[in-house]
Every structure is written in C-alpha cells, then in structure tokens.
Design a protein that fits this description.
The chain is an alpha+beta fold. Helix content is about 30%, strand content about 30%.
Length: about 350
C-alpha cells in the first residue's frame, strides 16, 4: 500500500512528466503514420515505402563498438583496424538491407472474427502469404502495446494464425492497430510496419448462470414440440413404455433386433415464445441483458422459435443459430440511454 508523502511516490511523480511527454510524442507519431498510410484494406501487401527501420539496443552498442574501433585505428594508423572497422560497417549495411527486405512484399489477409461473450478472448484470424522464392524469418505480430508471437514463412507458402484480444465488457470492440516487425538477420536493426485495417469484433453480454424467469409469450405461441399424434416429421426411436399405442411400434426394428421400439414424430409447429425486456425482474441494465442472453441460449438449445422485444426494437420470432446470433448481437449493441438496439 502506498501513502501520501512516500518517497517512492515522489520519485514516480517526478517521472510522470517524462512519461507524459513520451506518450504524447508516440500519439503524434501514430497520428502521422495513420494520416500518411490511411485505412488499409483487408488484403494488404506491404510495400517498402511504409516499412520503417531503426537500430535496436544491440545495434546501438554495435555502432559504439564500430566507432571506437575507427577512432583507435585512426589514432594508431592501424591498417588491420581500418579493415575490421570497414568489415563491421559492411555487415551492418547488409543487415539493414536484409532486415527491410524481410517484410517487403508480404501479404496480410484478414479472415474474420467470431463473436464471443464478455470475459472471453476475441480471436482475429489472419493469413500471411509469401509469394517470393525467399523465406521470411522471425515475423512478429502484436496488437499495439501488447505481447504477440513469431512466425516463419517458407518460400511460396502461406500460414494462418489467430491473434487474441481479451474482452471485459459487451459491445463493439475496435482493436488497437496491428504491428508487424522483424529483427532478422542479426538483431542489429528492427524493421516494422503498422497495419491499420478497419477491424471490429462483437462482444455479447456474459450469460447468467441461470435465468431469473422462464420464457414469456401468448398461449397460442406455446404450442408445438414433440407430439404423440403429429405425423409430419419422424424424429427417431425410443424404448417401449407401458401404454404406448401398438400402431407406433417399429415392427421392422422388432424383427431385426427383437426389441420393442416406439416411433416418435414431431409436429409441424415448433414452440414459439417471446423474450420481453419489460417482463424481466427489476435490475440494472447489464443484469437484464445477462438474463436475456441466457434465455436466448436456452431457446437455441431447445430448438424453440423465439422473438426478442427490447425498448425501441423488436426482432420477429424465428429459430436456429442465425436467430440466436442476431438477438445476441442486438443485446451487445443495446444502449438504454437512446432506448435502441440496432439489428
């Protein structure tokens, strides 16, 4: 625990102006790069004009060593010292060329992102394509300010990968810009490129463990499901139970297996119910959305036809995976202040 007046806090406070200056400088550089490059398409090929390169910490030490060698060679007029100095400089120049070329021409393709619930990780899917006969080594990918991973590309090949991004709240999540960099071949220089694609992911509300209410709806909407009399859709066989009508016995199955089985059918009308915001118990917005998310998942699992009513929005009843995602997406975008939930 820190206390006011602590010397450690005073030290940190003195350092804050420097950090603030550095942060402002970084923000200006990012804005300049964005204005210079603009928004990238979902299929991007890196060109040399947008690849930046600077020496690493190891490169700076290397430069000091080379400069010291040069001063010593000049001071003692040592030809072998000059030879070593020029050799080291040549290595550095070649390293610059290979480091920059390692990124030039690489294609990056965005392949989409699946929605997740709050608290889970969004996985942004990408594909790297190398159409060059040269291999690409030590390609690092990371969101701005976050840790990433490294991948190598063989000649004329491609690689698919996912970059995770942790979520905390529901809504539309716009990730930070993506950075691609390399320190190949010697680690003396770092070449990088900023990738400013128009990316976003949908984060659904985290579903409640158990919904506080059951489905609501008119009695006419509650009809359907498994039927003992409906003959529209055959659903399968089950074990015989005392009292089952003889006309439902699967005689062919009895002849083959010797076991009494009963044929089941599903009526043509599926259950239809409404999920209504106004019928939820009093609670804050996020709790209500969490309950609705649980009800939607239960409805999908039960193959129920359901609709969703929110302030300002109504989604007609339907069933299946697409209806569940449509309703969950509506919950993710819901804004109670404007009483709208765009579909």
């Amino acid at each position: 625990m820190a206390f006011i007046g602590d010397s450690r806090d005073r030290t940190i406070a003195r350092g804050r102006p420097w950090r603030g200056t550095i942060d402002r400088l970084r923000a200006r550089v990012r804005q300049w790069a964005l204005q210079r490059q603009g928004t990238d398409p979902h299929l991007l090929q890196l060109q040399s004009g947008r690849i930046y390169i600077l020496p690493t910490a190891a490169g700076m030490v290397f430069a000091v060593v080379v400069f010291t060698t040069l001063i010593g060679s000049m001071n003692y007029n040592n030809n072998m010292g000059f030879t070593l100095t020029f050799l080291l400089v040549s290595i550095a120049i070649v390293s610059i060329h290979h480091c920059h070329r390692n990124l030039t021409g690489v294609k990056i393709r965005f392949r989409g992102v699946k929605p997740v619930f709050a608290g889970e990780k969004l996985l942004f899917r990408f594909t790297l394509e190398n159409e060059n006969p040269r291999a690409r080594w030590q390609l690092h990918f990371a969101w701005d300010g976050l840790s990433g991973f490294c991948v190598d590309l063989d000649p004329n090949s491609h690689a698919s990968f996912e970059i995770p991004l942790q979520t905390t709240d529901r809504g539309i999540l716009i990730p930070p810009r993506l950075q691609m960099h390399t320190c190949f071949p010697l680690g003396l220089f770092r070449a990088w490129a900023w990738i400013n694609m128009d990316l976003q992911g949908i984060v659904y509300p985290a579903p409640a463990v158990r919904a506080s209410i059951r489905f609501s709806g008119d009695s006419k909407d509650q009809q359907g499901g498994l039927s003992t009399d409906g003959l529209e859709d055959f659903t399968g066989l089950r074990d015989y139970q005392l009292g089952d009508p003889p006309r439902r016995i699967a005689w062919k199955a009895l002849a083959h297996t010797g076991t009494l089985m009963i044929k089941e059918y599903r009526s043509g009308t599926a259950p239809q119910q409404w999920l209504d915001w106004d019928l939820l118990p009093p609670a804050n917005t996020e709790t209500k959305l969490s309950n609705l998310a649980r009800l939607i998942l239960d409805a999908k699992a039960g193959q129920t036809v359901f609709g969703l009513r929110l302030p300002g929005t109504e989604i007609p009843p339907a069933g299946g995976e697409s209806q569940a995602h449509r309703c969950l997406g509506c919950l993710a975008r819901f804004d109670e202040k404007t009483a709208t939930a765009p579909t």
